[in-house]
Amino acid sequence: MSMLRIRLKLRMLSFLGRIRLLYRSFVRYVIIYTLIILRRCFRRSIPQKQWLIWEANEKDSNSAMKRDAITNYMAWVVDQPWFKVEVDKLILDYIDFGNAFVTVDWLDNRMQTKDKTQIGYVGPVIKRISPLDMIMNPTSENFIQSPKIVRSIISMGELAKLLHSMTTDDNRVEYQELYTYLKDIRFRARTFQGDWIQRDHLYSIDGFSSFRAYLLSDFVEVLTFYGDYYDYVNDVFEENRVITVVDLFLRVSSYISFSLA
């Protein structure tokens, strides 16, 4: 009876030894496989030198010359400090508000040197729009179809630069009169000694304690409308319009565009 027990114990120990060996082999296999996957994920998380690929949606845009030019240009753009700064702002907006808005602006940083040559970047740049500075129709089916109003606070000097970039032979006099009016109303606000209570109730500018404080600040509120609207006066439905207004009631421009669609 004792010999039978001994044999059973030996067989049991042998069986347990095999189980332990199999378990160790299995654990070793899992560890090795996990390390291989982590290594692959780590390699893929590091951007490669040629990570940017141009996929054309037209046959004419898929030529080798155009493809290389677009790829090289965009690779240069995403490597610029100003691009990374704007992307950082967008990431923070998405974290704080759950939304991030960006559009394309035109930048002209040309400077003339002593030998009369011009240096500096001229071209499109991305421009972040704060979620607090944009309103839209929340009942619209999607973001593209929703009308939008974007608010900007710029200085009088920046407004002069904006009007200069929009000036043509047809509207040169109009824009000069507009800028003169804006300067004149701010000058008169400094010398006006009457009652501002009624005006402060009629005109409210976010970020300023009163309308007089706004006029004395040397800043201008610019409201830009993007989208479709119905003109009740002329009974016309306007599509893809961009309308710029300053000081809540002065229209600067109105034209057709798809820049924020």
Summarize the structure.
This protein has 261 residues and is α+β, with helices and mostly antiparallel strands.
Can you lay out the helices and strands and say which pair or pack?
Elements: H1 2-45, H2 64-77, H3 81-97, E1 101-108, E2 111-112, E3 118-119, E4 122-129, E5 134-136, E6 148-155, H4 156-166, H5 172-191, H6 197-202, H7 211-215, E7 219-231, E8 236-246, E9 250-256
Antiparallel strand pairs: 1-4, 2-3, 5-6, 6-7, 7-8, 8-9
User: What is the count of DSSP helices, taking H or I runs of 4+ residues?
Assistant: 7
The count of β-strands is 9
Content of β-strand: 15-25%
Return the string of H and E elements. HHHEEEEEEHHHHEEE
Largest beta sheet: strand ordering: 5-6-7-8-9
Largest sheet: 5 strands, antiparallel
Taking all residues together, what is the mean pLDDT? 78
Which percent range fits the helix content?
40-55%
Indicate the overall shape: elongated
Could you describe the 3D structure shown?
- It is a single chain.
- By secondary structure, this protein is α+β, with helices and mostly antiparallel strands.
- Among the domains are: 1-46; 132-261, no CATH class.
- Helix content is 45%, strand content 24%.
- A 5-stranded antiparallel β-sheet has the order 5-6-7-8-9.
